[in-house]
Amino acid sequence: MIKGDLRNHFITLSLYHRANAGADSSRPTAYSARMKLTDSEKRMLAGEVPLAGSAAAVAKAMDYLVQFGDAFGAERFVDVIYAHYPAEMSIYRGNVEDALEYAETGARVCIPTTSSTLACDLEQWRDYGCPPAIYELQRQLVPAHRKLGILGTYTCTPQLLGFVPPKGSYIITVESSAIIYYNSVLGARTNRGGLFTRYAAVTSKYPLTGYLLDENRRGTHLFKLHLERDDLRENCDFSALGFHVGGIVGSEVPVFDALPAGTTQDNLIALGAALATSGSVTLFHAPPHTAEARTVDEALHGGRPKETHTVTRADLRAVFDKLTTIAPGGPVDFVTLGCPHYSLEQLRWVAGWFVARNARVHSNVRLWVCTNRMTRRAAEWEGITQSIEAAGGRVICDTCPVESHMRISTCKEHGLPTPQIQAMVTDSCKMARYVGDLIGCKTALRNRDQCLAAAVAGRLV
Hints:
Layout: H1 6-19, H2 39-45, H3 55-72, E1 77-79, E2 83-85, H4 95-103, E3 113-115, H5 132-139, H6 141-148, E4 172-173, H7 176-186, H8 196-203, E5 205-207, E6 221-226, H9 235-249, E7 254-257, H10 265-278, H11 296-299, E8 307-312, H12 313-322, E9 334-337, H13 344-357, E10 366-371, H14 373-382, H15 384-390, E11 394-397, H16 408-413, E12 423-426, H17 429-438, E13 442-445, H18 448-457
Parallel strand pairs: 2-3, 2-4, 6-7, 6-8, 9-10, 9-12, 10-11, 12-13
Antiparallel strand pairs: 1-5
Helix pairs in contact: 1-3, 2-3, 3-8, 4-6, 7-10, 9-10, 9-12, 10-17, 13-15
């Protein structure tokens, strides 16, 4: 457990934020007796520094951050250089309205700030049955984000768009798979930002606490991999490994000894996303593939792990079995790839798979390959998108099934049938885990070749 568990304080301060969101921003701001503020930070808190937006908006943002820092006993602020911002999805009541109100306060981000996923593909929403009410509400965010200075990336993988902060830098992010990638693979330092990402992006300040501190980045659990060469080959295998380990460590810091020499960026993204799904892992070490430690000893800061575990092929197979509730040969009506969002190279692979086989998606199946809008543009330029769509699939931007109108709660709100999906095949533990809860369909975890074979056959193969 990291020093000063962030979760309870975050919940308390989130409630405070919502209760006081409409409070008079001109009220006097109390100086923190606990945190040591620099002279410039005191001026920001007093409403004397406008930065990129209004001085009043900066002062209010600093007020929230000071209270947050006080709750953790943080001694001071650090300067953050990048933020990945929550996109305020329209499937959550009040999210968009809150963002629109904030855009009118005069606040403006003062560091590079990307945005996370939305509840619909803003360009293709009509084509896949998104209710107009969700689209109409969600589209209002685009001008609001532009007014705030936020980039309209709308993705869970901003690192694939070139937002790659250097090792040791302080950043603030949302989206669990992005957070764990930045912390682990790149060695940048971030907590789970939540609502406070907004205020850090406006001030470029964040309390020195949580995973920004050296002592909280020490590995706690050691995992020795007793696996055959082919057991960790596909992204879904790394996803299964992460899902298994995350369920053991919870919110602590696993150390892997040793991932295969050929481990790729895509593999590490899949591993991290699953770690953050079955547990609430925010940082892992996998020497030498991750940034902070060249050896297991360095990852443990020269100490001993709390626990040591051995991972076998049986452990990985157990994950596949747990997340597969479709019977062998059973009908499939939905296949999804791209959780987290696919890269251009991954889209190229999907297109090549269909072209090489002259195959087509079964008439009873919807195939979604999820990515961000910039990558889709590049894929269109190369003809990749056209090949996938000619085969009957869809390249979906900005969103994914579990963050769309297909959620059970959203279906009920908009008078749609539930569940909208009966049986989904995916190569992602994160998708399989959440879709079972939020959409309520049967699931199967398979590698991407098997996923596409199921899309063509209309059954689990």
